[in-house]
Amino acid sequence: MEAAALNPWRAPSWRERLAALLIPPGARESVMGDLRESCASEAELLREVLRTAPYVILSQMRRNLNMPALLLQAGLVLWCFGAIAAGAALPLLVLREAWQPLARPSHRHALRDAVLVSFCGVLLFFLLPLCWPNVREGRFIGAACFMLGAPLSLLLCFVRTGLILDGDRRGHWLGSKLSMAEMTMMWRQHRRRVMRRNRLEAVLLALAAAWLPGLGIAGHAQSLLAAMFAASALWLVLDSPRRAARQDFVSLRALYSRSLAHQQQLRGFLWWLWLAPALMSFQATLPSEGAPSQILENSIVAVLLCFLVTALNREGSGRMREEIVALSRLRETPA
Amino acid sequence: MDSLGQFEQLVLTAILALGDNAYGVTIHAKVEELSKPRKVARGAVYATLDRMEDKGLVASWLSDPTPERGGRSRRHYRLEKSGEKALREAARTAQRLIETIAKGLGGLAWKPPR
User: Fold this and answer.
1) Which residues of B41-61 are buried (b: 16+ CB within 10 A; e: fewer)?
2) Which residues in chain B have their CB less than 8 angstroms from residue A9's CB?
3) Is the pLDDT of residue A4 over 50?
4) How far is CA B45 from CA B63, B65, B74, in A?
5) What domain range is A188 assigned to?
6) B24 contacts A30? CB cut-off 8 A
7) Is the dihedral of CA A103, A107, A110, A116 positive or negative?
8) Alpha helix (H) ranges present in chain A?
9) C-alpha distance from B113 to closest chain A C-alpha (Å)
10) Average pLDDT over residues A58-76
11) What is the pLDDT of residue A243?
12) pTM here?
């Protein structure tokens, strides 16, 4: 076996830390540790990082890719902004999946993002009259948006803070050791919780699928959306975590981790699905029919809703990853 | 169950052979040893491990961080029941293959290269 050749007591250099950024967070610790252990010099380590990174990035992309959610997001971008925007957004959305952080976003980053989003929203509103020249009174919109920028940013920060506090309230669940009986109990609770939530959401989705045709979105999109709601309801009914057969600690932990990741992917898709009818009906009023004040209101509500769904997904996904990392560090104790 | 690809068989066999000491570095070394004289990209091993973990063929966990790894943990791997089953099935197929080839060629005696 290859022996450790780098100085074992030396902390990673800035070059090594920089190269580590090429490896997605989901695999960074184990991959960089392996390379550090097996490479004879820093130059060799850097070369190995460059050779290994493409495989790891592709693998993490495949693992984290939430295909239904991605297609839905791309579809919404296509519907609202056209094919060029969708073509540009798709690779970014796919690549972003590989660099999913292993924890919930820090408070500072989350609030900074909120301010950034609100001011990007303001910029978008300024550009609105350029995109749709037939929207009259563009100056009015621009001025109104400029004045709304600060309150909007405050509102988004308020929403984000609420989600952070909610996440803090739920967190902190694991120690470093767990017995098999406790792990089994945790798995059963998780399974019951998931089944209850899936059944409830399936009923709501079915009701929404029946109600959607009355929404007044353009024909094909409306039927497609109703079909997606109905299919998702069926998916939720059929998709429940399986009963764990007699398994040991390691296998049950793996099953639990896979189920957590799967459920989070499902939730991520469903949040966007719930948002889709609202966004599509808002967009339908934009190009020609809407009065400036209505366009403004719709746009602000759309930004708020998109921000809320993204923040919910980030918090949920961060919490799930924290749980999976904590699970994979657990040691089994005797019952 | 899907049948295993050749590289997946190699990685599963390496994990089986290494027992409790199966993690990235040792698995890569063992796979290279099994597939001699072909060189194996380390990244391909990681990608295959990830894929097999998602399929439920192997399970993984993190060890405690160690100084020789710059304070980072090892990700250890272990075969799951379905992984063992898939590997047995692959071995049976290989066995049938060997028998058929040996029958067709009149033996599979290894001859040293001249």
Assistant:
1) ebbbbbbbbbbbbebbbbbbb
2) 67
3) no
4) 19, 22, 15
5) 105-333
6) yes
7) negative
8) 14-20, 25-38, 42-64, 67-81, 83-98, 107-131, 138-170, 180-211, 219-238, 249-285, 292-329
9) 28
10) 85
11) 75
12) 0.80
Q: Which residues, 6 or more positions from A212, have their beta carbon under 8 angstroms from its beta carbon?
A: A222, A225, A226, A229, A277
Surface of A (223-282) touching B: CB under 8 A: 250-251, 253-255, 258
Contact at CB, B47 and A34, closer than 8 angstroms: no
Q: Phi and psi for A168 in degrees, rounded to 5?
A: -60, -40
Tokens 């984000």 locate to A160
**If you search the block for the tokens 């069926």, which residue do you land on?**
A234
Do A88 and A114 sit in the same domain of this protein?
no
Name every chain A residue with its beta carbon within 8 A of the beta carbon of B43.
51-56
- Output the six-digit token pair for A47: 């070369």
Instruction: Indicate the CATH number of B6-104 among 2.170.130.10, 3.20.20.150, 3.65.10.10, 1.10.10.10.
Output: 1.10.10.10
The ipTM of this complex is 0.90
